[in-house]
Amino acid sequence: MAATDKSPETAGRVDPVVTKERMLGTESRWRRFGEPTPAGGSLKEDGTPDYGVFGPGSIAWDVLLHPATVFFQSPAQFVLQLTYKPILAGVRDWDPISRKARKGELTIFDRFDRQQRNSGIHAPMWLGDTPTARRVAQHLHNIHAKVAGDLIDIAHPELGGYQANGPREAMWAALTEMHTMLWVYENLAFRDGKAPHRLTPEQRDQYIAEVAVYCRLFDSPEGEIPTTMAELKALYEKYDDMFTPSRTMDVIPATGQSFHKIQQDSVKKNFHVSQLRIQTQLLLSQKLFRYAILGAVSGKTRRNMGMGPVKNAVAVASTKAMLPLIWLAQQPQAERRMMRLMWGPDAVKLIESARELQRQAKAGLLPDSPNRTAV
């Protein structure tokens, strides 16, 4: 059904028309609590630069500032995060996309806008000074206050409920986000004049140690935050039942509806020809690289997504076969377009500022060593 044929109950509440200006957006789409201050843009009490959570010279900035991460961050992040059942349950039951879909008001632009904000919301926490990172983390805490439920999976009541602001979910939201970025960097990022390759064991442990500082922004349980890859692996094993696949995770407990189906039905009903510009962007940024991204994550993650041996093999082969296109996606013109479109104007400034600081740190031009031991 065309969007111009909306039912009376949705008429006037759905804007199906997507202009170029609406698609691109302004700072307000991403900005929370005013313009973010870049890392190093303020001073700590002792008079030294406040470089934020990670700071120049960190492995985390190597990973997060690479063009591959900029280009693939959002679709890749969702792969791992949505295999963690409590996160999926929260999205399924509470996300604005779910609420709009249940009312028949969801459009493809809403999906696109959700992905845009998901990319841009992280940049101030990753690349801003400490007050900026804390403000945005508090914003996320506030909007997640109501995201809780008594049932993660209707077929597995033994799993219990979920609470987005609870220590367990807060920790895994940060860990799955950051672990995905490591996979992107190691499997899709061309660097050092070489094809994508793995960091050394020492560098991987350093990355996880730096991620631990980020986890502390979100009230993660101190006794469980991993600081090495071995500890992260052990944590996955401990919470394995929260990652194993289930065909009933799609069912919204309150209504019995299929989360996926109501989205598809609403998007189809509210279609407008102008939305083709959104569909083209999603095709280029997600559909084209979908299997290549899936090949970059772990085999366990693919199995948790319900992928069998054939699809698993196709994903791994796709990553290798698409390396030329993956390389093109990391070139300046493609990266700049993706950065502005998906991360927003504030994030563009934060990325450019942080890259300059990282360059100076690598050249030994920053005498002040960033504090990455506490936030």
Folded structure, characterized:
By secondary structure, the chain is an all-alpha fold. The chain contains 18 helices and two strands. The N terminus and C terminus are likely disordered.
Number of helices: 18
Characterize the biggest β-sheet.
Answer: 2 strands, antiparallel
Helical residue percent band = 55-70%
What's the order of the H and E elements?
HHHHHHHEEHHHHHHHHHHH
Instruction: From the alpha carbons, calculate the radius of gyration and give it in angstroms.
Output: 21 Å
Strand percent estimate = under 5%
The residue ranges in which pLDDT falls below 50 over 5 or more consecutive positions are 1-12, 371-375
Shape: globular
Instruction: Please identify the structural class as seen in this structure.
Output: mainly alpha
Number of strands: 2
How would you write the strand order of the largest sheet? 1-2
**Mean pLDDT, nearest integer?**
92
Span between termini: 51 Å
